[in-house]
Amino acid sequence: MIEEIRALKEEKNAVILAHNYQIGPVQDIADYVGDSLELSRAAAATDCDVIIFCGVDFMAETASILSPQKTVVLPASGACCPMAHMITADQLREVKAAYPDAAAVCYVNSTAEVKAESDICCTSANGVAVVNSLDQRQIIFVPDGNLGKYVARHTKKEIIPWTGYCYVHDRYTPDEVREARRLHPKAEVLVHPECRPEVIDLADYAYSTSGMGKHAQKSIASEFIIGTEVGMLYRLKKENPDKKFYPLSEKAICENMKKTDLGKVLLALQTLEPQVKVSQEISNKARRSIERMLAVK
Ligand code: 13P
Ligand code: SF4
């Protein structure tokens, strides 16, 4: 199957992008594995005709918005991020009407319609930098309430967070962090900013998924407790064979990120289906928000 995927990739001039939460074999076949920000940049930079996006819907939509002339395929049809659907464009318009002087920042885990209604996007890697780059003092932050609260702690601006959440990260508890530390007293605790504030308070660091990867490589620690989706441990172990990684919870599994496998990647290359497309009107507006984010250093 791997041979066939490689041959078809050449034939169709395709690139395979995979999020850090994808299963090991999919990460291994991908041309690029990364966090949401890195994958957005990779999608914007590629000159291939076809993008096979191993991730969830909003990621493939972002790729399609950035490269409307390319064929973008999401191998696992229906792989979605539930948090992205926790606010609608109508709801965002209502919040904007209530705070007319505020800028609207949307986490990239959002629908294309919500991106179109926002001033700028951000990811967990650049949320603070994006918010600080804006002129407005008040910032509406959607949809992730935990990331909104995390950003609020690291900026002087007033953040008005929406109440969405990621079910994978929101269910970690402070007791789980304390128990993991008891079991692995020498380990550093790295958690994702989508976790609750009381969980982040007990961790050593909060990073995006690729931020965790960079930290693990440069840290002098040799053991790490990882507070994000378990797929991240595959990459961490592969890149750091001499270090030890323990999941903060074995139950931290994003069902939608696990819907892609090699069979679906092969089928996607054979059929170039299911494609992800965004209407031109929404796409043009959403592109402004994404490109504005990509311009923030
Ligand atoms: P990052 O990989 O950008 O940290 O995002 C985590 C996530 O939950 C993506 O859906
Ligand atoms: Fe969405 Fe959470 Fe899954 Fe990421 S891990 S895709 S935020 S549900």
Task: Walk me through what this model shows.
The protein is an alpha/beta fold and 297 residues long. Helices cover 44% and strands 16% of the residues. It contains 15 helices and twelve strands. The protein has helices spanning 2-11, 24-29, 36-45, 57-66, 89-98, 112-117, 127-132, 145-153, 167-170, 174-183, 197-200, 209-218, 231-239, 262-271, 280-295; strands spanning 14-19, 32-34, 50-54, 71-73, 103-107, 120-122, 138-142, 158-161, 188-191, 205-206, 223-227, 244-247. The strands form three sheets. The chain has a four-stranded parallel β-sheet, with helices on both faces. A four-stranded parallel β-sheet has the order 6-5-7-8, with helices on both faces. A four-stranded parallel β-sheet has the order 10-9-11-12, sandwiched between helices. Helix 2 (24-29) links the parallel strand 1 and strand 2 (32-34). Helix 1 packs parallel to helix 14 and helix 3 packs parallel to helix 4. The longest helix is centred in the last third of the chain and has 16 residues, at 280-295. The radius of gyration is 19 Å and the shape is globular. The N and C termini lie far apart (40 Å). The mean pLDDT is 97. Bound molecules: 1,3-dihydroxyacetonephosphate and iron/sulfur cluster (SF4). 1,3-dihydroxyacetonephosphate is lined by residues 20, 35-36, 81, 109, 123-125, 166, 192, 194, 208-209.
Helix and strand arrangement:
Layout (H helix, E strand, L loop, with lengths): L1 H10 L2 E6 L4 H6 L2 E3 L1 H10 L4 E5 L2 H10 L4 E3 L15 H10 L4 E5 L4 H6 L2 E3 L4 H6 L5 E5 L2 H9 L4 E4 L5 H4 L3 H10 L4 E4 L5 H4 L4 E2 L2 H10 L4 E5 L3 H9 L4 E4 L14 H10 L8 H16 L2
Parallel strand pairs: 1-2, 1-3, 3-4, 5-6, 5-7, 7-8, 9-10, 9-11, 11-12
Helix pairs in contact: 1-14, 3-4, 4-15, 12-13
The structure holds 1,3-dihydroxyacetonephosphate and iron/sulfur cluster.
1,3-dihydroxyacetonephosphate (13P) binds next to loops.
